[in-house]
Amino acid sequence: MSDLPESLKYASSHEWVKLEEDNIVRVGISDFAQQSLGDLVYIQLPELGRALIINEPCAIVESVKTASDLFSPVTGVVVAINEAAADEPEQVNDAPYQTWLFCIKADDLDDLTHLMDAAAYQALID
């Protein structure tokens, strides 16, 4: 297991979250998640402009083993998707913390309070 970036927050459903300027929340999946899934072969991203509710299933990652839902860490609107990751899902396997999947403009940053810091997430996956 690689070291968890301290600058990120983590969901119990194994998404990582990075808060950007203007309430933009960047989302990807953790190294633990990509290792558990195995080689990714397909990523279905949410549509641009889609309104999401916190904890709503909004994307799917498929591997040679299984498919898994990704959940929105915040309530807001999808403002960016990473088409390169959708076209080449193996990028997530190669660099899970550098390969974001989508960005949401959060309605309320208080939604982030349910996320874990790196130490808490490490304790969850140990």
Globally, the shape reads globular
Uncertain spans, ≥5 residues at pLDDT below 50? none
What is the string of SSEs from the N terminus onward?
EEEHEEEEEHHEH
**CATH top-level class:** Mainly Beta
Instruction: Return the structural class.
Output: alpha+beta
Q: Number of helical segments?
A: 4
Rg calculated over all Cα atoms? 13 Å
Model description:
The structure is a single chain. 20% of the residues lie in helices and 34% in strands. The chain is of the alpha+beta class and 126 residues long. A six-stranded antiparallel beta sheet has the order 1-2-3-9-8-5. It has a three-stranded antiparallel beta sheet with strand order 4-6-7. A hairpin with a 4-residue loop joins strand 2 and strand 3 (24-29). It starts with 8 loop residues before the first strand and ends with a helix. The model has no long low-confidence stretch (mean pLDDT 96).
